[in-house]
Amino acid sequence: MGREPKSLHGKVVAITGGARGIGKATATQLVRAGARVAIGDLDVELARATAQELGSSVTAYELDVTSRESVARFLDAVEADVGPLDVMINNAGIMPLGAFLDESDGSAERQLDINVHGVIFGMKEALPRMLARGHGHVVNLASVAGKGGFPHAATYCATKHAVIGVSEAVRQELKGTGIELTCILPAVVNTELGSGIEAGRAVKKLEPEEVAEAILGALREPKFEVFVPASTGTISKVMALLPRRGREAIAHWLKADQILVQRDHGQRAAYEARAARSEPDQNDESKPEELVA
Predict the structure, then answer these.
(1) Domains defined for the chain, CATH in brackets
(2) Distance from C-alpha of 40 to C-alpha of 24, rounded to nearest angstrom
(3) pLDDT at 167
(4) Which of 74, 156, 227, 271 is the catalytic position?
(5) Chain-wide mean pLDDT for the chain?
(6) Which pLDDT belongs to residue 283?
(7) Residue 156 bears catalytic tag
(8) Distance CA 140, CA 227 (A)
(9) What is the reported pLDDT for 200?
(10) What does the pLDDT look like over 128-172, one tens digit per residue?
(11) Which of 62, 257, 289, 275 lies closest to 189 in space, CA to CA?
(12) Which end of the chain, N or C, is surrounded by fewer C-beta atoms within 10 Å?
């Protein structure tokens, strides 16, 4: 007989990049499940508006995931205001697109800072709190891009490979501690980060609520790797068995090698501009949507 699904009622959950998109959808479903949710976001005004919309069980905080000190202040405030941390969801991320040789060094560094260091800092600040109590769950938002290479998203793919790799290693270190660790690997999601991008032949474009459902499913019945949709996990496993030439031929047939190349530049313009200009000390209009595709 399998274990009973875990209840999320009363659990304290912190979400980075939680003001919109996948983060907001996850917060919404967690509230319905009875959890107490803290959302941290670079755009603190939007985070506060989201918290007000979702109700009294949600609190909002300013958060710059590229700064470990900011992450520490965020979690200190959450534990002081809401309670001991049960779940940490490292969701913040950006995805500027373009040919590798056209990418600025600043864009590459920003992706590494948010997508990789943000996850590392989140784990380094959350895990000691959980280890002290002998329980907890960390969820890291990766991507199917962490299992392959997609043209016009080279650095983004590198960051998601890094998220999966560091998660696998940390999971091994956590064995026997009572701490669970999960990687979520969505395909293309219908958020502003995914604007102007169409899914390939085998996979439809997801709604953020579908990713949120997968996150809650993993919290209730812990597992390490969760593909969204599940069919992409099957495709990934089959592709891993093939020689490179076969993998590339199938990827071409599925149009996976053109998904990010043949994007609608007009639809992505606003998001790309924010991602390119984003810095923690700039005004709200220039801040990117910090969420993961």
Answers:
(1) 12-286 (3.40.50.720)
(2) 11
(3) 98
(4) 156
(5) 89
(6) 39
(7) yes
(8) 12
(9) 66
(10) 999 999 999 999 999 999 999 999 999 999 999 999 999 999 999
(11) 289
(12) N
Q: Residue 209 burial by CB count (10 A; 0-12/13-18/19+): exposed, middle or buried?
A: middle
Mind spelling out the 3-state secondary structure of the chain?
CCCCCCCCCCCEEEEECCCCHHHHHHHHHHHHCCCEEEEEECCHHHHHHHHHHHCCCEEEEECCCCCHHHHHHHHHHHHHHCCCCCEEEECCCCCCCCCHHHCCHHHHHHHHHHHHHHHHHHHHHHHHHHHHHCCEEEEEECCHHHHCCCCCCHHHHHHHHHHHHHHHHHHHHCCCCCEEEEEEEECCECCCCCCCCCCCCCCCCECHHHHHHHHHHHHHCCCCEEEECCHHHHHHHHHHHCCHHHHHHHHHHCCCCCCCCCCCHHHHHHHHHHHHHCCCCCCHHHCCCCCCC
Q: What is the pLDDT of residues 27-44, one digit of tens each?
A: 999 999 999 999 999 999
Rounded to the nearest angstrom, the gap between the alpha carbon of residue 1 and the centroid of all alpha carbons in its chain is: 32
pLDDT at residue 257 in the model: 73
